[in-house]
Protein backbone atom coordinates (compact mmCIF):
# COMPACT_ATOMS: atom_id res chain seq x y z
CA UNK A 1 0.00 0.00 0.00
CA UNK A 2 1.12 3.54 -0.74
CA UNK A 3 0.40 6.55 1.45
CA UNK A 4 -1.05 9.88 0.30
CA UNK A 5 -1.67 12.90 2.47
CA UNK A 6 0.10 15.60 0.39
CA UNK A 7 1.28 17.47 3.45
CA UNK A 8 3.47 16.95 6.45
CA UNK A 9 1.48 15.15 9.09
CA UNK A 10 0.26 17.68 11.64
CA UNK A 11 0.69 15.99 15.03
CA UNK A 12 -1.84 18.41 16.52
CA UNK A 13 -4.57 16.92 14.34
CA UNK A 14 -6.37 13.60 14.57
CA UNK A 15 -5.57 11.38 11.56
CA UNK A 16 -8.49 9.99 9.55
CA UNK A 17 -7.52 7.13 7.28
CA UNK A 18 -9.17 6.49 3.91
CA UNK A 19 -8.60 3.30 1.92
CA UNK A 20 -8.00 4.07 -1.75
CA UNK A 21 -8.46 1.55 -4.58
CA UNK A 22 -7.04 2.81 -7.85
CA UNK A 23 -6.63 1.10 -11.26
CA UNK A 24 -3.02 1.80 -12.15
CA UNK A 25 -1.13 -1.05 -13.79
CA UNK A 26 -3.58 -3.26 -15.71
CA UNK A 27 -6.72 -2.74 -17.79
CA UNK A 28 -7.90 0.82 -17.44
CA UNK A 29 -5.29 3.52 -16.73
CA UNK A 30 -6.77 5.34 -13.76
CA UNK A 31 -3.62 7.20 -12.72
CA UNK A 32 -5.50 10.46 -13.21
CA UNK A 33 -7.96 9.38 -10.51
CA UNK A 34 -5.07 9.09 -8.06
CA UNK A 35 -3.89 12.58 -8.95
CA UNK A 36 -7.42 13.93 -8.42
CA UNK A 37 -7.64 12.21 -5.02
CA UNK A 38 -4.28 13.65 -4.00
CA UNK A 39 -5.44 17.12 -4.99
CA UNK A 40 -8.71 16.74 -3.08
CA UNK A 41 -6.86 15.66 0.07
CA UNK A 42 -4.54 18.61 -0.24
CA UNK A 43 -7.46 21.02 -0.65
CA UNK A 44 -9.35 19.66 2.35
CA UNK A 45 -6.35 19.41 4.65
CA UNK A 46 -5.35 23.01 3.90
CA UNK A 47 -8.79 24.47 4.64
CA UNK A 48 -9.81 25.69 8.06
CA UNK A 49 -13.57 25.35 7.52
CA UNK A 50 -13.59 21.62 6.72
CA UNK A 51 -12.54 19.14 9.42
CA UNK A 52 -10.16 21.65 11.04
CA UNK A 53 -9.11 19.25 13.79
CA UNK A 54 -8.41 16.30 11.50
CA UNK A 55 -5.86 15.25 8.89
CA UNK A 56 -7.01 13.07 5.97
CA UNK A 57 -4.56 10.34 4.96
CA UNK A 58 -5.15 7.87 2.15
CA UNK A 59 -3.55 4.43 1.95
CA UNK A 60 -4.13 3.09 -1.55
CA UNK A 61 -3.83 -0.18 -3.43
CA UNK A 62 -3.52 -0.82 -7.14
CA UNK A 63 -6.69 -2.86 -7.83
CA UNK A 64 -6.04 -3.04 -11.60
CA UNK A 65 -9.71 -2.82 -12.66
CA UNK A 66 -9.89 -6.53 -11.75
CA UNK A 67 -12.81 -8.42 -10.24
CA UNK A 68 -10.89 -10.07 -7.39
CA UNK A 69 -8.32 -7.42 -6.43
CA UNK A 70 -10.64 -5.03 -4.51
CA UNK A 71 -11.74 -7.71 -2.04
CA UNK A 72 -8.13 -8.59 -1.27
CA UNK A 73 -7.33 -4.88 -0.97
CA UNK A 74 -10.22 -4.46 1.47
CA UNK A 75 -8.77 -7.21 3.66
CA UNK A 76 -5.36 -5.51 3.58
CA UNK A 77 -6.91 -2.12 4.35
CA UNK A 78 -9.14 -3.25 7.22
CA UNK A 79 -7.29 -6.17 8.78
CA UNK A 80 -3.62 -6.02 7.84
CA UNK A 81 -2.76 -2.32 7.80
CA UNK A 82 -3.53 -1.64 11.46
CA UNK A 83 -5.20 1.72 10.80
CA UNK A 84 -8.95 2.08 11.23
CA UNK A 85 -10.51 3.32 8.00
CA UNK A 86 -13.43 5.75 7.95
CA UNK A 87 -14.12 5.30 4.22
CA UNK A 88 -13.13 3.54 1.03
CA UNK A 89 -12.51 5.56 -2.15
CA UNK A 90 -13.09 3.31 -5.19
CA UNK A 91 -12.64 0.89 -6.73
CA UNK A 92 -13.27 2.08 -10.27
CA UNK A 93 -14.70 -0.91 -12.16
CA UNK A 94 -18.18 -2.32 -11.52
CA UNK A 95 -17.37 -6.08 -11.44
CA UNK A 96 -14.91 -5.54 -8.59
CA UNK A 97 -17.23 -3.13 -6.77
CA UNK A 98 -20.07 -5.66 -6.66
CA UNK A 99 -18.07 -7.96 -4.37
CA UNK A 100 -16.54 -5.19 -2.30
CA UNK A 101 -19.84 -3.35 -1.71
CA UNK A 102 -21.46 -6.54 -0.48
CA UNK A 103 -18.68 -6.87 2.10
CA UNK A 104 -17.69 -3.34 3.19
CA UNK A 105 -21.11 -2.70 4.73
CA UNK A 106 -20.31 -5.17 7.50
CA UNK A 107 -17.56 -2.82 8.68
CA UNK A 108 -19.95 0.12 8.24
CA UNK A 109 -17.46 1.61 5.78
CA UNK A 110 -18.59 4.55 3.70
CA UNK A 111 -17.73 3.51 0.12
CA UNK A 112 -17.39 6.36 -2.37
CA UNK A 113 -17.31 5.42 -6.05
CA UNK A 114 -15.91 7.76 -8.69
CA UNK A 115 -16.14 5.60 -11.83
CA UNK A 116 -18.32 2.51 -11.28
CA UNK A 117 -21.46 2.85 -13.41
CA UNK A 118 -23.40 -0.34 -12.56
CA UNK A 119 -27.13 0.29 -11.91
CA UNK A 120 -27.09 -2.54 -9.35
CA UNK A 121 -25.01 -0.39 -7.00
CA UNK A 122 -27.93 2.02 -6.59
CA UNK A 123 -29.91 -0.56 -4.61
CA UNK A 124 -29.88 0.96 -1.11
CA UNK A 125 -31.26 -2.21 0.49
CA UNK A 126 -28.20 -4.16 -0.66
CA UNK A 127 -25.59 -1.39 -0.55
CA UNK A 128 -26.53 1.02 2.26
CA UNK A 129 -23.03 2.52 2.61
CA UNK A 130 -22.29 3.00 -1.10
CA UNK A 131 -22.37 6.46 -2.67
CA UNK A 132 -20.99 7.72 -5.95
CA UNK A 133 -19.93 10.94 -7.57
CA UNK A 134 -20.93 9.85 -11.08
CA UNK A 135 -24.31 8.96 -12.65
CA UNK A 136 -25.26 5.38 -13.49
CA UNK A 137 -24.40 4.04 -16.95
CA UNK A 138 -28.02 3.69 -18.10
CA UNK A 139 -28.15 7.50 -18.16
CA UNK A 140 -24.52 8.35 -18.90
CA UNK A 141 -24.15 6.08 -21.92
CA UNK A 142 -27.52 4.76 -23.04
CA UNK A 143 -29.23 8.13 -23.33
CA UNK A 144 -26.51 9.51 -25.67
CA UNK A 145 -26.58 6.20 -27.56
CA UNK A 146 -30.31 6.58 -28.18
CA UNK A 147 -29.78 10.23 -29.13
CA UNK A 148 -27.28 9.10 -31.78
CA UNK A 149 -29.74 6.52 -33.10
CA UNK A 150 -32.54 9.07 -33.43
CA UNK A 151 -30.27 11.80 -34.80
CA UNK A 152 -28.93 9.61 -37.62
CA UNK A 153 -32.12 7.65 -38.24
CA UNK A 154 -30.64 4.21 -37.51
CA UNK A 155 -33.19 1.39 -37.30
CA UNK A 156 -31.04 -1.76 -36.94
CA UNK A 157 -28.12 -1.85 -34.51
CA UNK A 158 -26.13 -4.29 -32.40
CA UNK A 159 -25.09 -3.99 -28.76
CA UNK A 160 -22.08 -6.01 -27.55
CA UNK A 161 -21.19 -6.15 -23.87
CA UNK A 162 -19.45 -8.33 -21.32
CA UNK A 163 -21.40 -11.15 -19.73
CA UNK A 164 -21.05 -9.71 -16.20
CA UNK A 165 -24.33 -8.82 -14.47
CA UNK A 166 -23.61 -5.09 -14.33
CA UNK A 167 -23.02 -5.00 -18.11
CA UNK A 168 -26.08 -7.09 -18.91
CA UNK A 169 -28.29 -4.67 -16.95
CA UNK A 170 -27.03 -1.79 -19.09
CA UNK A 171 -27.60 -3.79 -22.27
CA UNK A 172 -31.17 -4.64 -21.21
CA UNK A 173 -31.87 -0.96 -20.49
CA UNK A 174 -30.54 -0.04 -23.94
CA UNK A 175 -32.83 -2.57 -25.64
CA UNK A 176 -35.83 -1.28 -23.70
CA UNK A 177 -35.12 2.36 -24.62
CA UNK A 178 -34.42 1.53 -28.26
CA UNK A 179 -37.66 -0.43 -28.60
CA UNK A 180 -39.65 2.71 -27.78
CA UNK A 181 -38.42 4.15 -31.08
CA UNK A 182 -38.95 0.94 -33.07
CA UNK A 183 -35.24 0.22 -33.29
CA UNK A 184 -34.25 -3.43 -33.78
CA UNK A 185 -31.33 -4.47 -31.54
CA UNK A 186 -29.20 -7.60 -31.88
CA UNK A 187 -27.58 -8.25 -28.50
CA UNK A 188 -24.39 -10.22 -27.97
CA UNK A 189 -22.44 -11.08 -24.81
CA UNK A 190 -18.67 -11.60 -24.77
CA UNK A 191 -17.32 -14.55 -22.81
CA UNK A 192 -13.93 -16.07 -23.70
CA UNK A 193 -14.25 -15.45 -27.44
CA UNK A 194 -15.99 -13.03 -29.77
CA UNK A 195 -15.74 -15.15 -32.92
CA UNK A 196 -19.33 -16.44 -33.02
CA UNK A 197 -20.78 -13.07 -32.08
CA UNK A 198 -18.95 -11.22 -34.85
CA UNK A 199 -19.83 -13.84 -37.46
CA UNK A 200 -23.50 -13.58 -36.49
CA UNK A 201 -23.50 -9.79 -36.84
CA UNK A 202 -21.87 -10.09 -40.26
CA UNK A 203 -24.47 -12.64 -41.37
CA UNK A 204 -27.25 -10.31 -40.16
CA UNK A 205 -25.65 -7.48 -42.13
CA UNK A 206 -25.75 -5.10 -39.16
CA UNK A 207 -23.69 -1.98 -39.81
CA UNK A 208 -24.09 -0.02 -36.52
CA UNK A 209 -22.37 -1.68 -33.56
CA UNK A 210 -22.36 -0.35 -29.99
CA UNK A 211 -19.69 -1.67 -27.62
CA UNK A 212 -19.92 -1.50 -23.84
CA UNK A 213 -16.82 -3.39 -22.77
CA UNK A 214 -13.39 -3.02 -21.30
CA UNK A 215 -10.38 -2.26 -23.45
CA UNK A 216 -9.05 -5.83 -23.79
CA UNK A 217 -12.53 -7.01 -24.85
CA UNK A 218 -12.54 -4.34 -27.55
CA UNK A 219 -9.22 -5.64 -28.88
CA UNK A 220 -10.72 -9.13 -28.97
CA UNK A 221 -13.82 -7.90 -30.83
CA UNK A 222 -11.85 -5.88 -33.39
CA UNK A 223 -9.47 -8.81 -33.88
CA UNK A 224 -12.37 -11.10 -34.79
CA UNK A 225 -13.93 -8.35 -36.93
CA UNK A 226 -10.65 -8.10 -38.84
CA UNK A 227 -10.59 -11.86 -39.47
CA UNK A 228 -14.26 -11.83 -40.53
CA UNK A 229 -13.80 -8.74 -42.73
CA UNK A 230 -16.49 -6.89 -40.78
CA UNK A 231 -14.90 -3.57 -41.60
CA UNK A 232 -14.91 -0.65 -43.94
CA UNK A 233 -16.39 2.85 -44.13
CA UNK A 234 -19.97 1.53 -44.09
CA UNK A 235 -19.54 0.04 -40.58
CA UNK A 236 -19.99 2.36 -37.59
CA UNK A 237 -18.57 1.43 -34.19
CA UNK A 238 -19.68 3.32 -31.07
CA UNK A 239 -17.38 2.79 -28.09
CA UNK A 240 -16.80 4.24 -24.61
CA UNK A 241 -13.71 6.42 -24.34
CA UNK A 242 -12.26 5.10 -21.08
CA UNK A 243 -9.75 3.09 -23.13
CA UNK A 244 -6.11 4.11 -23.08
CA UNK A 245 -4.70 6.25 -25.86
CA UNK A 246 -4.09 4.13 -28.98
CA UNK A 247 -5.50 1.09 -27.17
CA UNK A 248 -5.39 -1.00 -30.36
CA UNK A 249 -1.57 -0.69 -30.50
CA UNK A 250 -1.10 -2.40 -27.13
CA UNK A 251 0.26 -5.92 -27.61
CA UNK A 252 -2.21 -8.45 -26.18
CA UNK A 253 -0.97 -12.04 -26.13
CA UNK A 254 -4.49 -13.37 -25.43
CA UNK A 255 -5.49 -12.94 -29.08
CA UNK A 256 -3.94 -14.08 -32.33
CA UNK A 257 -4.03 -10.71 -34.07
CA UNK A 258 -0.85 -8.68 -34.32
CA UNK A 259 -0.66 -5.00 -33.48
CA UNK A 260 -0.32 -4.31 -37.21
CA UNK A 261 -3.51 -6.24 -37.99
CA UNK A 262 -5.48 -4.37 -35.32
CA UNK A 263 -4.17 -1.07 -36.66
CA UNK A 264 -5.24 -2.13 -40.15
CA UNK A 265 -8.71 -2.82 -38.76
CA UNK A 266 -9.17 0.11 -36.40
CA UNK A 267 -7.50 3.10 -38.00
CA UNK A 268 -9.59 3.28 -41.22
CA UNK A 269 -12.83 2.50 -39.35
CA UNK A 270 -15.56 4.98 -38.51
CA UNK A 271 -15.55 5.03 -34.70
CA UNK A 272 -17.65 7.30 -32.49
CA UNK A 273 -16.46 7.70 -28.91
CA UNK A 274 -18.92 8.52 -26.12
CA UNK A 275 -17.29 10.10 -23.09
CA UNK A 276 -18.48 10.71 -19.54
CA UNK A 277 -18.97 14.34 -18.58
CA UNK A 278 -18.93 13.97 -14.80
CA UNK A 279 -19.83 17.56 -13.98
CA UNK A 280 -22.42 19.19 -11.81
CA UNK A 281 -25.74 20.43 -13.17
CA UNK A 282 -26.26 22.85 -10.26
CA UNK A 283 -24.93 25.89 -12.18
CA UNK A 284 -22.91 27.01 -9.18
CA UNK A 285 -19.36 28.32 -8.97
CA UNK A 286 -16.95 25.59 -7.83
CA UNK A 287 -13.89 25.81 -5.58
CA UNK A 288 -11.81 26.36 -8.72
CA UNK A 289 -13.93 29.40 -9.57
CA UNK A 290 -15.60 27.90 -12.65
CA UNK A 291 -19.15 26.86 -13.54
CA UNK A 292 -19.94 23.55 -15.25
CA UNK A 293 -21.60 23.60 -18.67
CA UNK A 294 -23.58 20.42 -19.24
CA UNK A 295 -25.38 19.31 -22.39
CA UNK A 296 -28.47 17.25 -21.64
CA UNK A 297 -29.52 14.63 -24.19
CA UNK A 298 -33.30 14.27 -24.34
CA UNK A 299 -34.51 10.90 -25.58
UniProtKB/TrEMBL annotation:
Alphabetized SUPFAM superfamilies for the sequence: Periplasmic binding protein-like I (SSF53822)
GO-annotated cellular components: G protein-coupled receptor heterodimeric complex
Keywords: G-protein coupled receptor, Glycoprotein, Membrane, Receptor, Transducer, Transmembrane, Transmembrane helix
GO terms for biological process, alphabetical: gamma-aminobutyric acid signaling pathway
InterPro entries: ANF_lig-bd_rcpt (IPR001828), GPCR3_GABA-B (IPR002455), Peripla_BP_I (IPR028082)
Residues of the Receptor ligand binding region domain: 33-256
Subcellular location: Membrane
Gene Ontology molecular function terms on file: G protein-coupled GABA receptor activity
One Pfam family named in its UniProt record: ANF_receptor
Name listed for the protein in its UniProt record: Gamma-aminobutyric acid type B receptor subunit 1
Amino acid sequence: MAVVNNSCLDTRKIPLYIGGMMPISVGWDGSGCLVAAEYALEQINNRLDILPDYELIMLWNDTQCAKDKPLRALYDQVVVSGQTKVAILGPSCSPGVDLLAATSKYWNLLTILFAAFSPALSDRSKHPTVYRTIPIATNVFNDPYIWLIRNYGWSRVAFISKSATSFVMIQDDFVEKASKFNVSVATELIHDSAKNQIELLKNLDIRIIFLYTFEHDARQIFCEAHKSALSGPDIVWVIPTWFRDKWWLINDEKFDCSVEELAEMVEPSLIIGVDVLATSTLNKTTVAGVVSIVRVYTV
